[in-house]
Amino acid sequence: MDIKNLFFVLAISIGLTSGAYAQGEHEHGKAQVKVLAKSTKSWDGSTLPKYGQGQPEVQVLKITIPAGAKLPMHKHPVINAGYLMKGELEVTTEQGEKKTIKAGDALIEVTNKWHYGRNIGNEPAEIIVVYASTEGSPITVLK
Questions:
Q1: Phi, psi of 73 (to 5 degrees)
Q2: In the chain, which residues fall in CATH 2.60.120.10?
Q3: Distance CA 57, CA 136 (A)
Q4: Element containing residue 6 per DSSP (H, E)
Q5: Tens of pLDDT along 9-25?
Q6: Domain covering 39-142 in this structure, CATH number
Q7: How far is CA 15 from CA 9, 65, 95, 139, in A?
Q8: Nearest of 111, 112, 69, 61 to residue 85 by alpha carbon
């Protein structure tokens, strides 16, 4: 899926995930919508924090992690969620909690919790991550 189509799917998903469209797969006109993730909690069960005050800002990043690579310990002070398009990743918190995701999986990431990601597959992992923050806020802090 190219980035233009991803933006279309995200826009349709956001527009249709309230009320009757909150769960499962749906058709709306010619578009099909499948909710990939919807939660008030991150993958480790922690409740997501409230949004900060100020001008909202959304960033959409495509991150490619080489096979066998391990990212440094870091945390995200803002809410974010990802969709793994290709590969296999393992996310580990400083406390030892682990989550493995494979291509086609969505993940609501931990917020304000030290963790790292590692590509445990044999090919580069490609993940699209959406960060919801306020303008000027850092999205990642290295330990």
A1: -60, 130
A2: 39-142
A3: 8
A4: helix 3-16
A5: 444 444 433 444 445 66
A6: 2.60.120.10
A7: 10, 31, 36, 24
A8: 61
